[in-house]
């Protein structure tokens, strides 16, 4: 909730049931980001009747009387010039809702709330493949499946999934590979017929706390690329008034992320092009990350050619 709410209003809001706070948050969202609110917005979203929606709006107005006013010309509530949001709306959730909608109702097509455009997903997992994997993660179970890899082709695998990962262009799962006896990345689109193994016990070495690459957090210090013609624009784009952007990533995902973000990771910032807006100030921060060689321009400080193999590519 926003820090500008006065204490009595905050106390009232905190006493409300969670389901009612969700409805009030939806009212707050509509006013804040769309500039209008109708009773049907609440009734349709939560499956309540018009009378219940009216009560929710009245409750919101009691908590924040200066936030909305009725536009009698079309019977729509609008935010006042003095509007202050009651809730802290997480940016990623807001952007997802605005670009894809809330998905009110089973089977409804997700529709954007405002005109927008975003990259088309060229690859998405089948739900029949995704579901057994997420059940295994949630319940701590192993999975049997057929898997096709670049290295060894099509074969049977048993894995213990520990986490889903979106690297910006595709989804994969981080898992313990019983065949290779180590943690690897497995791409969903290469999986066939995954089956949950209910009676297969999980060994201590297969648990998430044993995945060193997953549990190691790397701190990256990104700065405007020294060759960029307008570093002040880069600083604005990435909200870095002091010229430094601190980012923390898992070692298991570092190479994927740096490639997705197009970060020049060469020690001498030698990569050219306007697309390289940022430079990794200390490339040695990536040392030991299993997929560091995916990072643009990365040079292994030991020149180890044996470190060039990457799973799940």
From TrEMBL:
Residue ranges annotated for the WYL domain, each copy included: 129-193
Domain annotation DNA-binding transcriptional repressor CapW winged helix-turn-helix: ranges: 21-87
PROSITE patterns, sorted: WYL
Xref: InterPro entries: CapW-like, CapW_CTD, CBASS_pafABC_assoc_protein, WHD_CapW, WYL_dom
Pfam families tied to this protein: BrxR_CTD, WHD_BrxR, WYL
Highest taxon in the source lineage: Bacteria
Domain DNA-binding transcriptional repressor CapW C-terminal dimerisation span(s) in chain numbering: 217-283
Protein known as: WYL domain-containing protein
């Amino acid at each position: 909730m926003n820090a500008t709410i006065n204490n009595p209003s905050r106390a009232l809001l905190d006493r409300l049931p969670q389901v009612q706070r969700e409805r009030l948050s939806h009212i707050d969202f509509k006013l804040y980001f769309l500039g209008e609110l109708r009773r049907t917005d609440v009734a349709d979203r939560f499956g309540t009747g018009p009378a219940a929606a009216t009560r929710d709006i009245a409750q919101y107005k009691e908590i924040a009387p200066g936030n909305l006013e009725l536009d009698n010309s079309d019977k729509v509530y609008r935010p006042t010039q003095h509007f202050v949001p009651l809730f802290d709306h997480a940016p990623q959730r807001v952007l997802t809702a605005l670009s894809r909608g809330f998905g009110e109702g089973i089977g409804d097509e997700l529709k954007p709330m405002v005109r927008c455009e975003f990259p088309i997903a060229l690859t998405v997992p089948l739900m029949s493949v995704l579901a057994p994997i997420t059940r295994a993660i949630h319940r701590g179970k192993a999975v049997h499946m057929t898997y096709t890899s670049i290295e060894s082709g099509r074969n049977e695998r048993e894995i213990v999934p520990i986490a889903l990962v979106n690297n910006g262009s595709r989804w994969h799962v981080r898992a313990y590979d019983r065949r290779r006896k180590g943690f690897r990345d497995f791409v969903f689109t290469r999986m066939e017929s995954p089956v949950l193994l209910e009676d297969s016990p999980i060994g201590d070495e297969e648990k998430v706390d044993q995945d060193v690459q997953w549990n190691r957090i790397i701190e990256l210090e990104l700065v405007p690329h020294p060759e960029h013609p307008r570093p002040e624009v880069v600083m604005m784009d990435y909200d870095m008034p002091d010229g430094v952007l601190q980012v923390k990533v898992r070692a298991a995902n570092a190479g994927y992320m740096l490639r997705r973000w197009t970060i020049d990771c060469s020690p001498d910032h030698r990569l050219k092009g306007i697309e390289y807006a940022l430079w990794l100030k200390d490339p040695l921060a990536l040392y030991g990350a299993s997929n560091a060689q995916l990072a643009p321009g990365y040079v292994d400080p030991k020149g180890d050619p044996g470190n060039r193999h990457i799973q799940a590519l």
